[in-house]
């Protein structure tokens, strides 16, 4: 009996060619910062959480914004939707204004407008941030007439 098992094992071992086993490298952890584009340094508005999933084939994103100050903060945001190659998957969105009251946390939820969107970047702007004061960046600047 032992001889049969040994012969069977040897025959099966020769019949199966040795092939290398490919092990997938773990996906790089994507931080919240890698998904954000801050237009200037925001002192009091922080992104406290960020998650995404697919619903009915569309990318769904939820971000938690937090005001770390006692004073109300004005913020504007928009999402840039990207395809699998990193190109724009949709037209540029309009800025969406938001007021965060003192020490308030709120969730913003957005759904991709196309199934081609596989990634995203959230753009954030606040009139109180350093870029606005220095260069007039963001939504407020777009309402000013150009010389």
Automatic annotation (TrEMBL):
Residues 126-147 are annotated as: Disordered. It comes from the Bacteria. Keywords: Signal. InterPro entries: DUF1425, YcfL-like_sf. The keyword RNA-binding does not apply. The keyword Signal applies. Residues 131-147 have a biased composition (Low complexity). Gene3D superfamilies: 2.60.40.3230. Pfam families: DUF1425. Residues 1-29 form the signal peptide. This is DUF1425 domain-containing protein. It comes from Pandoraea terrae.
């Amino acid at each position: 009996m032992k001889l049969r098992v040994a012969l069977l094992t040897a025959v099966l071992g020769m019949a199966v060619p040795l092939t290398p086993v490919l092990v997938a490298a773990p996906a790089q952890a994507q931080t919240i910062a890698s998904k954000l584009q801050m237009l200037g340094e925001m002192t009091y508005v922080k992104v406290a959480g960020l998650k995404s999933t697919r619903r009915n084939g569309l990318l769904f994103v939820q971000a938690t914004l937090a005001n770390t100050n006692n004073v109300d903060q004005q913020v504007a945001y928009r999402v840039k939707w990207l395809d699998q190659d990193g190109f724009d998957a949709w037209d540029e969105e309009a800025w969406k204004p938001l007021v965060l009251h003192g020490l308030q946390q709120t969730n913003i939820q957005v759904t991709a407008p196309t199934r081609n969107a596989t990634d995203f970047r959230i753009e954030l702007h606040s009139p109180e941030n350093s870029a606005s004061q220095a260069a007039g960046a963001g939504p407020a600047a777009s309402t000013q007439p150009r010389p």
